[in-house]
Amino acid sequence: MRYKILICTALSLFGLTAVAQKQQAKPVSIIFDSDIGPDYDDAGAITLLHALADNGEAKILATIASNKYEGIAAVLNVFNTYFNRPEIPIGVPKGDGVDMRDSQHWTDILTSKYPHNITLNAEVPDAIKVYRKVLAAQPDHSVTIVTVGFITNLSNLLVSPKDEFSALNGRDLVQKKVKRLVTMGGAFPSGKEFNLEKDAKASKLALENWPTQVIFSGFEIGAKIKTGLELINNSQLQSPAKDAFRVAMSKAPEDAAGRMSWDEVTTLVAVRGYNKFYKLRTGKIKINADGSNTWDGNVKGQCYLVAKVAPEQVGKVLSKLMMQQPEK
Fold this sequence. Notes:
- Helix content is 42%, strand content 19%.
- The protein is α/β, with parallel strands linked by helices and 328 residues long.
């Protein structure tokens, strides 16, 4: 009888452990906000995000552009369609904002080569409409926003008024629905970085006033992680990410050893968390009029990543995910 009790207890504990593991494995709800175009690490980031979604680690709620060049909605739709998620909402800024495309024209190659149902930016809603509609429909404190581009949309979202999707203003809606913001922006503890600089006014408004936790993946983090060579040298693979890297790397001698992986590592941290590869330094960002930033370590509420392992270890994880093929 005693053995039966022990066996039943063990099975019960096993069952509770299995339940706990299943609960921990709940996918992270992600809004992906990207300038996908000036650089090609965005192509790696959205590919990696879809791979994580295929693994059951992420649920992609929307893919939103922070850039305005004509055709950016089509580029996002190429990746969503390639990974069998053509229905994912796409938004593009319709007001003021940065209009900047890639100099290597890999975006044009992708839209000419791969299937997509969206051609023009006019076919998709304003980015803030998508943000508000998606956020309003989610459980409270459940959404992770990851930005790997300009901060234009975040600024516009915070100052947005109530609408047909929610009676809350933008700041209150973010505070109610968003769990955390993970952003590729800034250089730490101080410096000047492209994403914050290009729309410095929006960066200052949004990031100094964001009402939930913010994790910054600074310039110095992604700059040390090189990816792309394994991807383009994989003869068994054909994918939008491979084509983007193949075209762009061939025109960039400085990337002969691989492209710096700012956007990929930020996306990885947004889904899997920071603890395996990074530790956090707490404080709060201060953004100057020119987009440069400093850090106040005496204030709570925000943090930036500090490496605790060799960048090559992170690069191997990124490369593997970037080569993962979509589920059939």
